[in-house]
């Protein structure tokens, strides 16, 4: 079976849906964005700079999928006003949002808590926890305009059971799990919004290679192998699931 996320293996599961994917420049975010487009979604690609995302934009167009959009956002520096402005752009352009996949992540190094620089701690927490919170909060009115909306927070094994030296990244991912649970409870009976977290497992990404430069990257699967699990949760297959801490097994969320 092909693991090319630009193939049509996901059919039209996300047909006519508008899906925002953060971290769409590379790695997991890029794979999820391409898979969503292949499944029929209009994908809003988000990363640091517009120019960075143009190759992903072009690939989606060249494959004959719905025309995507580009929404530059620097999760390290963006303010509440920036996130609200981004949500306004989505509203003006599409009138609603059907899905939000949080795929952006930053884990700059491994360190003992004894040695962790306070300013780096705040930066990592901001990118991996505070920014997803602010973006989600800004997008909630748009998600409520959808008849079947889904939020997928990308989790990590170190955010479910702490491991030494993962520091602020692990703490942020524990926070993501808490944010997911609280938001799921708040939206469960009052909206059509589903909220879940998904641990994709250890993948062959630039983030992993940076943290473990001596590791053989071929030990781990490509991000494309887990992208279908995001499509599953963002589309009709995910109906009925909310407040769940899920993992990827054999390419599916469970």
UniProtKB/TrEMBL annotation:
Signal peptide span: none
InterPro entries xref list: NAD(P)-bd_dom_sf, Sc_DH/Rdtase_CS, SDR_fam
Keywords, sorted A to Z: Oxidoreductase
Superkingdom in the source lineage: Bacteria
GO molecular function: oxidoreductase activity
Keyword Repeat part of the UniProt annotation: no
Family per record: Belongs to the short-chain dehydrogenases/reductases (SDR) family.
Protein name in the entry: SDR family NAD(P)-dependent oxidoreductase
């Amino acid at each position: 079976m092909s693991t090319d996320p630009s193939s049509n293996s996901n059919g039209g599961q996300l047909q006519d849906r508008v899906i925002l994917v953060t971290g769409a420049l590379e790695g997991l975010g890029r794979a999820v964005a391409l898979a969503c487009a292949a499944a029929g979604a209009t994908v809003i690609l988000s990363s640091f700079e517009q120019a960075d995302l143009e190759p992903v934009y072009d690939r989606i167009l060249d494959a004959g999928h719905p025309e995507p959009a580009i929404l530059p956002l620097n999760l390290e520096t963006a303010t509440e006003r920036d996130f609200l402005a981004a949500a306004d752009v989505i509203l003006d352009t599409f009138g609603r949002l059907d899905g939000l996949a949080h795929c952006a992540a930053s884990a700059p190094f491994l360190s003992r808590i004894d040695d962790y620089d306070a300013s780096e701690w705040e930066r990592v927490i901001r990118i991996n926890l505070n920014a997803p919170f602010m973006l989600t909060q800004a997008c909630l009115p748009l998600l409520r305009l959808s008849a079947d909306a889904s939020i997928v927070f990308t989790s990590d094994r170190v955010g479910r059971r702490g491991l030494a030296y993962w520091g602020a990244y692990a703490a942020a991912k524990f926070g993501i799990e808490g944010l997911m649970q609280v938001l799921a409870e708040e939206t469960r009976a009052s909206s059509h919004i589903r909220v879940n977290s998904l641990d994709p497992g250890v993948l062959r990404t630039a983030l992993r290679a940076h943290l473990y430069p001596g590791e053989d990257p071929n030990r781990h699967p490509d991000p494309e192998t887990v992208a279908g699990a995001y499509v599953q949760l963002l589309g009709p297959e995910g109906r009925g699931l909310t407040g769940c801490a899920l993992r990827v097994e054999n390419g599916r969320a469970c």
